[in-house]
Design brief:
With 309 residues, the protein is α/β, with parallel strands linked by helices. The chain folds into two domains: 4-85 and 188-304, Alpha-Beta Barrel (TIM Barrel), CATH 3.20.20; 97-179, DNA polymerase, domain 1, CATH 1.10.150. It is built from 13 helices and ten strands. It has an eight-stranded mixed β-sheet with strand order 9-8-5-4-3-2-1-10. A two-stranded antiparallel sheet has the order 6-7. Helix 1 (20-29) links the parallel strand 1 and strand 2 (34-37). Helix 5 (133-142) crosses helix 7 (161-169). The relative contact order is 0.17. GO terms for molecular function: 5'-3' DNA exonuclease activity; 5'-3' RNA exonuclease activity.
Length: 309
C-alpha cells in the first residue's frame, strides 16, 4: 500500500493558522504517513508536533524554512532533520525572526497608510511566533471594517486572501517591495553551512515560483544556473514537487526539476507549503491538486543521513 507525505508545512509558530497538534491531526485525517514542520525561521513548533505524531501514528520530521539573501534577492532554504537544540542554529533563527517581525510591522503601517484597518497586537495574539504575510491577508479580509476599502480597491467583494497576495503581498508587488524592506542578514551560503553543522540536509524551497516563469501555459526555467551555483555552495536538494497555477504547468515543473536534480546528483523533496488557511489555496499533501508525494522521497532523504525508517 502506497504511503504519502508532505515535507513543507507551517504552524502558528510562524505564518500558519494551525497549532502543531492541529496540523498533525489534519495530516492524519487526509491519510498522510509523514509531514515535516518547516516554519519560517523557527523550530519552536517541532516538539509539540512530534509528540502529537507519536500519539496519532504520524511521522513528524524536524524542519525549518530559512530566509536568506542570495544575489540581493530573498531566497528560502528548507532544512530537514537538523538538531533543533543546536545553539548556533537557534541563535541565527532568533535574529532572523526579529527581522521578520520588523518586516511585518512595516507592512502593517503600509496598509494603514492605504486606509485599511490592521492592528499589530491583535494579529500578534493569533500566532505563537512571528507574523507573516498570510496573517496580514487574513486580517485584512476578515475585518468587516475593511469591506468598503476592499470593494473600492478590487471592484468586488473580496473573500479570498489570494487577491491580497496578487495585488499587495506577492514578492514582485510594488507594495511588498516598498514596505517589506528589511532584508535578511543571512546569506544563502551561511544558511547551508548552519544547517549542515546542525546535522541536517538543505533544500531549495519552491523553485516553481522563484526560478520559473509561465508564458501561455508553458513553464520557462530561468534559474537553473543559479541552482548549479547553489549546489556548489553545498545545497543538498531541490523541492521538485510543488503546485503552481494548474496541474499541467505544475507537472512540467516537477519533471524539469526532478531531471535537473538527477543530473546534478541531488535529492528531491516535495511539499504543499501548507499554512492551514487559504493564502495560496494549496491543500495538505497536495491531495486536492492530485499531486500526491510518495514516501519513497523521504526514504531517499533518510538514506543520505543513514537514518533507518
Amino acid at each position: 500500500m502506497s504511503k504519502y507525505i508532505d515535507l513543507h508545512t507551517h504552524t502558528w509558530f510562524s505564518d500558519g493558522g494551525l497549532s502543531p497538534t492541529q496540523l498533525v491531526e489534519e495530516a492524519k485525517e487526509v491519510g498522510l504517513s509523514a509531514i515535516a514542520i518547516t516554519d519560517h525561521d523557527t523550530v519552536g513548533g517541532v516538539p509539540e508536533a512530534m509528540e502529537a505524531g507519536k500519539g496519532l501514528g504520524i511521522e513528524v520530521i524536524p524542519g525549518v524554512e530559512m530566509s536568506t539573501d542570495f544575489q540581493d534577492h530573498d531566497l528560502h532554504i528548507v532544512g530537514y532533520f537538523e538538531n533543533i537544540g543546536d545553539q548556533r542554529l537557534n541563535k541565527v533563527l532568533y535574529s532572523e525572526g526579529l527581522q521578520r517581525e520588523e518586516k511585518a510591522k512595516s507592512m502593517i503601517l503600509g496598509f494603514q497608510k492605504l486606509g485599511y484597518h490592521l492592528d499589530y497586537e491583535e494579529i500578534k495574539s493569533k500566532t505563537a511566533g512571528t507574523i507573516g504575510r498570510p496573517h496580514l491577508a487574513v486580517a485584512l479580509v476578515n475585518n468587516p471594517d475593511n469591506a468598503a476599502k476592499l470593494l473600492e480597491d478590487f471592484g468586488e467583494e473580496v473573500t479570498s486572501t489570494q487577491k491580497i497576495f496578487d495585488k499587495y503581498l506577492g514578492g514582485d508587488c510594488e507594495f511588498y517591495q516598498k514596505y517589506a524592506h528589511v532584508e535578511s542578514s543571512l546569506t544563502t551560503e551561511e544558511a547551508l553551512e548552519i544547517i549542515h553543522q546542525a546535522k541536517g540536509l538543505s533544500f531549495l524551497a519552491h523553485p516553481h515560483w522563484d526560478f520559473t516563469s509561465i508564458t501561455k501555459g508553458k513553464a520557462n526555467f530561468v534559474g537553473d544556473e543559479k541552482i548549479r551555483l547553489l549546489q556548489g555552495f553545498g545545497l543538498d536538494g531541490i523541492e521538485a514537487i510543488n503546485f503552481r497555477e494548474n496541474l499541467d504547468v505544475s507537472k512540467q515543473m516537477v519533471r524539469h526539476y526532478t531531471l535537473l536534480a538527477e543530473e546534478l546528483g541531488m535529492l528531491i523533496s516535495g511539499g504543499s507549503d501548507y499554512h492551514g488557511f487559504g493564502n495560496a489555496g494549496k491543500s495538505l499533501g497536495l491531495k486536492e491538486e492530485h499531486m500526491l508525494i510518495d514516501y519513497e522521497i523521504l526514504t531517499r532523504i533518510k538514506a543520505r543521513l543513514n537514518i533507518v525508517s
